[in-house]
Amino acid sequence: IVRVGSRCQNPKIQQFSLKNARQRARENRSLPKDIFHEKQRMLAEKVAFEEALKSKQQEMEWTQTHIILFSSFTEHLIIDQRHISSLLAPFHEDMRDIALLGWLGFYPDFERIPDNFIHPENRETHVLPMETNDTMIEMQEDEFNEEDEEEERRRHDDDINLEEYEPTTGHLTDRRISSKVEISSRRARQTVQSQGNYNDRLIRYIIENPTTLNNETVNQINDNVWQLNEQERYDLYRYWLLKYRQHLQNSLDNQSREYNVAASILAEYRQKEDYYLLKDNIIVAMTTTCAAKYHNILEKLQSKIVIVEEAAAIFEAHIITALSTKCEHLILIGDHVQLKPNPSVYHLAVKYQIDVSLFERLIKNKFPNVRLNIQ
């Protein structure tokens, strides 16, 4: 006896489960070697495809919140060689990955670019506040609040006045110096946080707006990309980003197809394994849901007798899917005057009578049946 399905928690029934039969077969090494090894190979292949898909999906999500490294573009031939040479010209070899960030204005402290690589009016490499376009996001840095600084001084002075009547553990001058250091540290933290917020807003502005360029217009861009103004640089980056996303999407599509093929082959080997475990059993018990799921295995088992318990509460379609072409004897057990099938859509029950089970329909049509007088 083998029971297919793992919902039942009764320990007396669990010992007959297909899950335990699989475990015993692995421990006893009773499975055919070709099925076992092929299943393991396809399982490893499926896991590898899953990891690759997750990696590509993470890359795709990354492009929506971060500036892509220069090496990611060049690795997939996204940027023209003439623009690559121009973009890297001001940088040392070990600064290739930050070249794109510097070009977009995210690294104001990197090495000064020589005048012959940059247009005179765009000599500063940092990004100016975006006030040239009404649709731009306002990105003014938050200045240190002077009222907070004054409040800090007053609070400190109040603390000093209160402590005049208590034993002091330090010199008054030391406390004032400590207060100044605390205020300076606070100012520095706010400046760093403000710069971080500014960069986040700039990244959102660059990424969320669509590019206006296409292959033809990009080919017309000057070889020296440092001569482009801020908006032109952002637009060119969006074009590169669009191409990079298209590359990632194509990779995702290809790997998804490969994953689906591997998953289908793995499912076939799992069915072969289950068939090998079920074929020598006299009784195979399962729900109608499992019967639909394992329909291919039921066809191979060629069971001549099918017994359905609580048949009056099961949809007719569910019973039909549990039958194989080799079925010769169908035994339905139930009570048609009690529970009926419960469709989730009431309209279907009323219009098409799908709440009438095969058991009830056969009884109402005077099909030969046996009724128990004592249970």
Which structural traits does this protein have?
elongated; 15 helices; single chain; 375 residues
What would your notes on this structure say?
The chain contains 15 helices and four strands. The protein is mainly alpha-helical and 375 residues long. It has two domains: 21-281, no CATH class; 296-375, P-loop containing nucleotide triphosphate hydrolases (Rossmann fold, 3-Layer(aba) Sandwich), CATH 3.40.50.300. Strand 3 (305-308), helix 13 and strand 4 (329-332) form a beta-alpha-beta unit. The radius of gyration is 37 Å and the shape is elongated.
How would you summarize what this structure contains?
The chain contains 15 helices and four strands.
Pattern of helices and strands = EHHHHHHHHHHEHHEHEHH
| Largest pleated sheet | 2 strands, parallel
Count of distinct structural domains: 2
Number of helices: 15
Strand order of the largest sheet: 1-2
Inertia-based shape: elongated
Please state the average pLDDT score: 78
Helix fraction? 40-55%
Topology:
Elements: E1 2-3, H1 11-14, H2 18-28, H3 33-62, H4 70-75, H5 81-88, H6 99-104, H7 146-162, H8 172-208, H9 215-219, H10 230-278, E2 284-285, H11 288-293, H12 295-301, E3 305-308, H13 316-321, E4 329-332, H14 346-352, H15 358-364
Parallel strand pairs: 1-2, 3-4
Helix pairs in contact: 2-10, 3-10, 7-8, 10-12
